[in-house]
Specification:
Elements lengths: L1 E7 L6 H17 L7 E6 L7 H11 L5 E11 L2 H13 L4 E6 L7 H6 L2 E4 L7 H19 L8
């Protein structure tokens, strides 16, 4: 099952980029034998600063046809790491080919795009910077693969 991270903004060189790349590299090694991966990042930019609705149009174009849409949103479901791993496994085992994790810009995700989502995930009630959410998602994707693979990375 391919994972797509469709996000507003460019993750440039620096600590966030380094961490994200490291987790995706680890995930690729761990997830492939489990039928997970690769992760593809699709970055979009609203260069005219037209706001959430313009970002939603760009994000919508970035989502692969037929992909399950999973938004990252403060109103989404709060899950433990094992629950997230189980959710990925359910999608995979249900025959899902593509899952698109959608991360909005500084103002979040346009309500119309949010309403189309099949699933919404929250990293808690706090609001996180969208660039940091990308690192956190990358780590949780890798952690999910290690949980599903029975690896030692996650300890409950």
């Amino acid at each position: 099952m391919r994972l797509h991270v469709c996000a507003v903004g460019r993750l440039r060189a620096g600590p966030e980029r380094d961490l994200t790349d490291d987790y995706y590299t680890r995930f690729d090694r761990t997830g492939r034998p489990l039928g997970l991966g690769p992760v593809v990042e699709i970055e979009v930019e609203d260069k005219k600063n037209l706001g959430m609705s313009a970002e939603a149009v760009l994000l919508d174009r970035a989502i692969p046809n037929g992909a399950l849409i999973a938004t990252l949103d403060e109103r989404g479901r709060v899950m433990s790491s094992p629950e997230f791993a189980e959710q990925l496994a359910r999608w995979r085992d249900g025959g899902r080919q593509d899952v698109a994790f959608v991360i909005g810009g500084a103002d979040g995700i346009d309500p119309a795009l949010r309403a189309r989502a099949d699933f919404s995930l929250s990293f808690g009630k706090m609001v996180w910077p969208h660039m940091l959410v990308r690192v956190m998602l990358a780590e949780q994707i890798y952690r999910a693969a290690t949980i599903l693979g029975g690896g030692p990375y996650h300890r409950s």
